[in-house]
Task: structure prediction
Amino acid sequence: MHPVTPRSFGRIPSATGGIARLALAQLRKLGKDPRPVMSGAGLTVQEADDPGTRLEVRTEIKVLEIAARELQDEFFGFHLAHDFDLRELGLVYYVMASSADLADALRNCERYSKINNEGVRLRFSLGRTATIGLDYISVDRSSDRHHFEFWLVTLVRICRQMTDNTLTPHKLRVRHFRDEPPVEFKIFFGADVEFGADADEITFPLSAASLPIVGRDNYLNKLLRRYADEALASRPKERASIRSNVERIIVQLLPHGRANASEVARQLGMSSRTLSRKLRDEDVTYADMLEKLRAALAKRYLSDHELPVSEIAWLLGYRETSSLTNAFRRWTGTTPRQFRSSECRRRKANRPPARFKKDGRQGTEW
Result:
């Protein structure tokens, strides 16, 4: 658990860079030259070779996306997360692995996850289920597939290893979209992944939260949490993501036809010029955000077969259904109705057979 020397990023979210270095190591293992990938992501050899240097989160995302193209592996992040030693996650992993039960471990992860990654924040909640959520802070979520899928696999692996239990999520929801749900995902997770959702979440049965951690050690946990608190205190103060606030307001304004930059800026208490500058600092424009958010929401709404297309058009701020159809064709190359029909066929084809308990009643297991 060597210390990590922060680079001077100002307020740009950084990470330990371990995922990017795993990706580069995999390229070398498969006989590929990692230098083109490093160059494409703006990563120097010195940064790549020094495990004590933090990397920008967006650089790490780019490394995985470019490496996936180089290897022609559509599910590179998913594959990359399968075999690495979880102890490489460092202090945060050891805090979790010495916790009392799974709920305690995930609460510790929620508190300390930004030590490893300032741009992807874990949240944990208990209600009818035990839910792990992932939120992006000042990082463009729409550009990320492989980096996120790496974390999806890693979190499930951690929960299974710490409890020595083959936990199966009740539900997995991710914001990014894939045309065809991979069979490998269903085999590994034991559950379907809902792509194009409005949140990034892993949901376990509530009873999973009380599962004891196999390596629990109260004394060690207190000691490690003290180290982790010191590490947190040494991190630079962060700012709230303008992007996330803008997205929240856009969703509220779209049905009323008022999702323009000036109205969003007014609700945030700033001028349109200031809003443009702050979004530019996060490498995005308002017009691009609005377009991508509408496209993601359209796919999400179309997955609900009870919502008429005309109502979806209204929810997205279009006065005419034809306007939605033209926009959706531009985003996906197909119409909303064609997309909905293909989704329906896909779900029927991938619907798992009913499982039955010994007494003949239908049931599920985790």
